[in-house]
Specification:
Layout lengths: L2 H6 L3 H17 L1 H9 L8 H16 L3 E5 L4 H8 L6 E5 L2 H7 L5 E5 L7 H14 L9 E6 L11 E6 L5 E2 L2 E2 L3
Parallel strand pairs: 1-2, 1-4, 2-3
Antiparallel strand pairs: 4-5, 6-7
Protein name: Pyruvate kinase C-terminal domain-containing protein
Organism: Tetraparma gracilis
Length: about 180
Amino acid sequence: MLSAESAAGAYPVESVEMQQRIINRVERDSRYKKQLDQNLPMPEPTPTDAITLAARQVANTINAKALVCFTLRGSTVMRASKGRPSVPILAITPFRATSRQLALSWGVYAAVTETENDEFDLVLRNACRAALQKGLVTSPDDLLVVTAGLPFGTPGAANVIRVVPAAGPACWDGVCRID
């Protein structure tokens, strides 16, 4: 552990870079992924667990860059994180406190974004912007798998899976609508 070196040592940047190289190498190892998969807890028989499991499978199938989960208090994101998906999870919440708590979860990048709007496409566009700002997507063609509960504001109502290109919900197959 290099915490003393990274906090007060002569080479803090280099020590953190070394930690990141070690993490990257371990996480690319097929044996690591196999062990993670063997130790995953069974999903609970709930709609939220079913949606997050399906989203993880869709993300693997289409090589998505991230899962995007809309959440109020973080329970949906925590369930998705518990499944250790192979892609990052972008947690979208309207609450700063929830965002801060979720930032400590495995594989989660949290963002505070307004979700009170009734227009789902607008909320999806905001999520695509957040994915770009967090560095989770690099190309307009990168795909995101989105989970949400509609109507927004209903706790535990994960009932939507949608695949969205990073360019936004108005773009598909390279064709964009001009709003």
